[in-house]
Amino acid sequence: MATSSSDPVVSIDNVRKEYQLGGTVTALDGVDLLFEPGSYTAVMGPSGSGKSTLLNLVGALDTPTSGDVIVAGENVATLSETERAALRGTRIGFIFQTFNLMPRLTAVENVALPLMFAEWTRSRRRERAESLLTDVGLGNRFDHLPKELSGGQRQRVAIARALSSDPELILADEPTGNVDTETGTEIMSLLRDANDRGNAVLLVTHERRIAEHADRIVNVRDGVVEGIEQVEHTTPAETEVGAVGTGAGQGATEERR
Ligand code: ADP
Ligand code: MG
């Protein structure tokens, strides 16, 4: 299917999701949303409001009960399981609260995993993974297993993995939920960097403080979108404290590492 760069990267149209579990649980109750290429959106709501359900549909991990979820031009509702796996592997990067790294694979091997879909040599995959790990500040942890890394380091491996196939869409489900506040700030700035490089980011959180890192906040409650707000970023970034008079609006990343 032909898509142009102006098509939304995700289009959600009248989506319902019900779970049958000794009765019907309606997790999403008629949701309509559009996500533009390169946009940065936070979906915010209390626990149980349907955030993870929504992210799992956008991430082609699950299919809606009714309605359409179009991701990168493909309707998740009508794809086979194999087609959904290919979509996940090539167009979408995931970051989960619990990191979800492969425990027996090293940092480099975890990051290289999504590149199995690219027809690259082993050494090219390793090179790409090493470069991504270096970008997230883990240049000295290539061959560590997840259990040999701190929570914050594991989440940085997960971010490098999410970026490895350069997907147009990064999905993050409560990415700071299992790390301390300082590490959480670092993770949010890595997500901002990814967005600055053109990846659309869809972040799910119950915390307003985290949601405000995005450019748009979608408020959800009981499976319904209650409202959408634009976020005003008054200063370019609160991290640019040292950038006085340099005119360097963007390069704050290096100083933080
Ligand atoms: P959130 O991520 O906002 O906390 P979820 O999307 O996980 O919310 O859950 C929304 C609702 O759907 C909750 O009531 C939850 O209990 C229910 N739910 C989620 N996943 C399942 C499942 N696999 N089976 C049955 N009910 C589920
Ligand atoms: Mg959740």
Please describe the topology of this protein.
Blueprint: E1 10-20, E2 24-35, E3 40-44, H1 51-58, E4 66-71, E5 74-75, H2 81-91, E6 92-96, H3 107-112, H4 122-135, H5 151-163, E7 169-173, H6 181-196, E8 200-205, H7 208-211, E9 216-221, E10 224-230, H8 252-255
Parallel strand pairs: 3-8, 3-9, 6-7, 7-8
Antiparallel strand pairs: 1-2, 1-4, 4-5, 9-10
The structure holds adenosine-5'-diphosphate and magnesium ion (MG).
The gist of it:
By secondary structure, this protein is an alpha/beta fold.
Question: Care to describe what's here?
Answer:
The chain has 257 residues and is an alpha/beta fold. The protein has a single domain, classed as Rossmann fold (3-Layer(aba) Sandwich). Helix content is 30%, strand content 25%. It has eight helices and ten strands. Strands 6-7-8-3-9-10 form a six-stranded mixed β-sheet, with helices on both faces. Strands 2-1-4-5 form a four-stranded antiparallel β-sheet, with helices on one face. Strand 7 (169-173), helix 6 and strand 8 form a beta-alpha-beta unit. Helix 5 (151-163) runs parallel beside helix 6. The radius of gyration is 18 Å and the shape is globular. The termini are far apart. Mean pLDDT is 89; it is low at 243-257. It binds adenosine-5'-diphosphate and magnesium ion (MG). Magnesium ion binds at residues 51-52.
